[in-house]
Specification:
By secondary structure, this protein is an all-alpha fold. Helix content is 77%, strand content 0%. Keywords: Chloroplast, Membrane, Plastid, Transit peptide, Transmembrane, Transmembrane helix, Transport.
Amino acid sequence: MISLNLSASLNPGLTRTRQNPTRFSPLHAAADKPFSCRYPLGLPQIPNLQIRDSPAKRPFLSIIKRSRSVSAAAAAANPDGESLSEEAAAKKEKKAKNLQLGIVFGLWYFQNIVFNIFNKKALNVFPYPWLLASFQLFAGSVWMLILWSFKLYPCPKISKPFIVALLGPALFHTVGHISACVSFSKVAVSFTHVIKSAEPVFSVIFSSFLGDTYPLAVWLSILPIVMGCSLAAVTEVSFNLGGLSGAMISNVGFVLRNIYSKRSLQSFKEIDGLNLYGCISILSLLYLFPVAVFVEGSQWVQGYHKAIASVGKPSTFYVWVLLSGVFYHLYNQSSYQALDEISPLTFSVGNTMKRVVVIVSTVLVFRNPVRPLNALGSAIAIFGTFLYSQATAKKKKIEAGDDKKN
């Protein structure tokens, strides 16, 4: 009796079950399963359930501990935990920027080739460079007005001082553009580009007159340019004095444009290259078209009929003229965008390689005869422009170092 009461006191539910054997007792059913969850379904809570972290019973715990120890060792070896991620992000950003610049350079070269080919095709059947040059500026002006009107590109804040400062560079840009078109109409495209590679010579001469000084390396670099251009001119099959003069005047115009742009537009740095070129195109059109009407306007109608008769289909001639105008603006737009993103040295080297690509492409397309000495002179001149870009870049680095010291 004592033992029965003791059992009842220890487990009253067991007594009730024995009194009513047909009743199912969850407590009795769970008596053989001490680790089963019996809470909160009216069952007593197991107060202290302890599980030993034995590697044999719980192998994943040892794996976690080992991984934590490895992470701690790596963190101790690299105190700055974020340096690796920052370096990876910097490399990724650099790759993206290089890809973007590669696309810009590729477009710049491709657009320049397309312009030179269709510009020459149009001039071969319609030898009126003043009208064609005016149309190219007109196409660029319309392009920029569309971008600004539909807010595809931010419109610059144009003020009276900005327009006044832009009058000089726009005038010299007009001179450089029309002179190049005149040269293209009279000689082979390759010859014009060889002569235009002598632009650094005029840049050094005019800048020296305005007070700039250059080291000996810069002056020596222009010697192969002069020699190469002279050899190419003497051996050029399609040599024409008007074509040579046009290319030389074009060099003068673009050099003066660059010089006066640096001097007069210093206080308008908030206007980026694309908007600056768009404004220059509009002002240049206003400069050029009235003079074009005066110079050759009376011959346009007759020349148009001859061009259509020569081509056969009016649409073909229209496409040539349209492509020359659109791609003239696009290649200049790409060059200004590249100049905003890269150093002047990289741009100069890219511009030199652009002339090589254009010369080779136009020779292949138009099958211009090239003599060995002519090719040698062209190569020497282009190599001279590369040496010039290297020498001027070194000069700028020295000047920048001197400014930091002061």
